């Protein structure tokens, strides 16, 4: 893909590592100036590396799980003084374990606050500006987890099902506005997700995973093409997503249990 977007401006959340950082690299490689955001100090290092692409890069360490954090980010966007041509709403977190007997309520609610509430909040703010301009691209990082009940990761899968449904609904609402919505649906990807979600002692946590650079490239290309969604990563992910649409939830929840149940419980 040629650098036909030089001088455009993109925002990427959850951009200090993993899929988010690789998405930021895709934008930078194709000439986008960037505002990148994450809740940890590594966002500064990420910004420094991205400047090697000869684009302007701003960074902000903000906790988007708090409504004040979303407002702060939107303030940074407004302060940049330029329209957002594309935004990747990628920040997300999981909380693996038995919902009733293991996961902490604070951790479960944090998944909802970051994956759901902050996504809706930021989309509401940014999309109003895009629709007013009649131009813009939005990439939501969903997941193939959105297609099935998440036994031993119940709140996370439910949050991604929300994101997937939300993205597809507002895509249809905005179909005549010049603004496009794309949902990126990766499978298990080699990021810090499984460590943060306390899922390293699971079959999926120890299995071979997709390269986040490949996932990001797929997502970026789908975004630029205006696709409604894309399943990224291995062929297995595409099969899994397809099967989830035809199998009953009782069966897919049991399949997910085999992947996400801590090995010590087996």
Description:
This protein is of the alpha/beta class and 266 residues long. The protein has one domain: 3-Layer(aba) Sandwich (Rossmann fold), CATH 3.40.50.720. It is 49% helix and 14% strand. It is built from 10 helices and 7 strands. Strands 3-2-1-4-5-6-7 form a 7-stranded parallel sheet, with helices on both faces. The model has no long low-confidence stretch (mean pLDDT 93).
End-to-end CA span: 47 Å
What is the assigned CATH homologous superfamily? NAD(P)-binding Rossmann-like Domain
Tell me the radius of gyration. Answer: 18 Å
Number of strands: 7
Described by strand count, sense and barrel closure, the largest sheet is: 7 strands, parallel
The percentage of residues in β strands lies in 5-15%
Overall shape: it is: globular
State the gist of this model.
The chain is 49% helix and 14% strand. With 266 residues, the protein is an alpha/beta fold.
Give short descriptive properties of this protein:
266 residues, Rossmann fold, 7-stranded parallel sheet, 49% helix
């Amino acid at each position: 893909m040629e650098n036909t977007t030089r001088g455009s401006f993109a925002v990427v959340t959850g951009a200090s590592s993993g899929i988010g950082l690789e998405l930021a690299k895709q934008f930078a490689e194709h000439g986008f100036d960037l505002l990148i955001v994450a809740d940890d100090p590594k966002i500064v290092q990420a910004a420094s590396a991205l400047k090697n692409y000869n684009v302007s890069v701003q960074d902000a360490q903000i906790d988007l799980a708090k409504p004040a954090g979303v407002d702060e980010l939107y303030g940074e966007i407004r302060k940049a003084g330029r329209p957002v041509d594309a935004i990747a709403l990628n920040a997300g977190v999981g909380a693996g374990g038995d919902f009733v007997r293991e996961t902490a309520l604070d951790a479960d609610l944090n998944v909802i606050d970051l994956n759901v509430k902050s996504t809706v909040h930021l989309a509401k703010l940014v999309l109003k500006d895009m629709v007013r301009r009649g131009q813009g691209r939005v990439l939501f990082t969903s997941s193939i987890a959105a297609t099935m009940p998440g036994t031993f990761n119940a709140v996370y899968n439910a949050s991604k099902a929300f994101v997937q449904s939300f993205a597809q609904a507002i895509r249809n609402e905005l179909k005549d506005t010049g603004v496009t919505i794309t949902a990126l649906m990766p499978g298990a990807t080699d990021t810090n997700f499984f460590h943060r979600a306390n899922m390293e002692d699971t079959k999926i946590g120890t299995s071979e995973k997709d390269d986040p650079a490949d996932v990001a490239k797929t997502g970026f290309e789908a975004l630029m093409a205006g696709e409604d969604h894309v399943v990224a990563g291995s062929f297995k992910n595409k099969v899994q997503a397809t099967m989830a649409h035809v199998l009953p939830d009782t069966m897919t929840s049991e399949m997910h249990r085999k992947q996400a149940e801590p090995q010590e419980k087996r």
